[in-house]
Amino acid sequence: MSNVTIRDIKTILTEPDNIRLVIVKIETxxxxxxxLGCATFTQRPTAVAAAVDDYLRPFLKGRxxxxxxxxxxxxxxxxxxxxxxxxxxxxxxxxxxxWDIKGKMANMPVYxxxxxxARVAAxxxxxxxxxxxxxxxxxxxxxxxxxxxxxxxxxxxxxxxTYGNKGAAKGTETASNQNTLExxxxxxDWLREYDDSKLYAHPGGVYEPKPYMRSALGLFExxxxxxxxxxxxxxxxxxxxxxxxxxxFAKQVEKYQLFFLEDLFSPEDQAYFKMVREQCATPIAMGExxxxxxxxxxxxxxxxxxxxxxxxxxIGGITPAKKITAMxxxxxxxxxxxxxxxxxxxxxxxxxMLNLNAYNFGIQEAAIAPERTREMFPGMPTLKDGMMxxxxxxxxxxxxxxxxxxxxxxxxxxxxxxxxxxxRADGSMxxx
Length: 432
Ligand code: GCO
Ligand code: MG
Hints:
One of its GO terms (biological process) is amino acid catabolic process. The model is unreliable at 166-178, 183-187 and 190-204 (pLDDT under 50). The radius of gyration is 22 Å and the shape is globular. It has helices at 45-60, 68-76, 85-106, 110-113, 133-145, 189-192, 209-227, 243-253, 273-279, 293-301, 318-330, 345-357, 371-376, 402-406, and strands at 6-14, 21-28, 34-38, 122-130, 150-155, 232-236, 260-262, 284-286, 307-308, 334-335, 364-365, 382-384, 387-389, 422-423, 429-430. 48% of the residues are buried. By secondary structure, it is of the alpha/beta class. The structure holds D-gluconic acid and magnesium ion.
């Protein structure tokens, strides 16, 4: 067994393209041997950095880098209270970095350490959104021409704040940061006689479930009319409609044969999925808001979902993710790791390692990384023919240009960079 040890652990905080990223770097007793891990929780990045710098760093210095499992288990309970997004992200950064090191020492990509490939590359889905059916459709067309075959479609709901496309009615603000109940509450005349044409622009943008559902169903009808049923389309409800409306919505959606319908309910309401399963066959994706593997067990065990949407760093990295993947395979539930812009390129590389290895891989969410981000992370997975490809290099196969990263510190943000506060017409909160 190697006697290479953890010499130091550091956090790299950088914002190359308007998304705050947290990368953990483990330096070892072997000169030049280091590993990288994703610890990106973009709404609370400095809390994650403190959890690494102040607690995991002193706890793990000197440990043998080979002992990933024991390091994960002992770190997980080193805080006694556990299972939250901040500590799990810190642990993920360490865990992924140790897998990166193990691959470099074995001169193998991590997918080979996990048992080798089940596919040559990982099919991905990309995001489209817009203010109208045509605008979304035109973006779908562009991506189809670039070779993508799975496309998420979201659209503004006229006059409202909408997930996936903040545009409220022209000339109004988005719902962002209406963080006091006394914020600008919309003119509610329309509540008594709802009618698109009469809808007034809502100052600040509010969210109402039924206009959103009508708008989304109209979008699916349009997309199927324009592109037929050969194209795979996906949609993210983002936990914003009351559960019983979600049951109704899933039934309406069935005829549009979505690849999956995501976050139909909040994790707190996920017991409602039982009703959906009894009434329709719309494929269900859930999990980006799961922090504990124990939240996902009943969803897999009771076959309440088809795709595991976990954000890998939110549950603590590759080590727990590979265990959940294995459980999913036994229940024929597939993976669809969370992977928008606020998964770092290192996180995307970690997702890809499991995607190439897992028999029960489903789809990978992909963010088209801007040029500066790609330059900062050499070796980042590439997108071609609608799939994500590994460079086959040892470990996670990715690096970071630390000098460049230092040139892009976190920007100041109003409200500390909190997720948008979304409210209904009466001012009550909507889960994000
Ligand atoms: C998705 C997610 C994201 C989240 C974001 C939160 O399906 O990609 O819903 O868009 O909203 O990652 O920070
Ligand atoms: Mg989502």
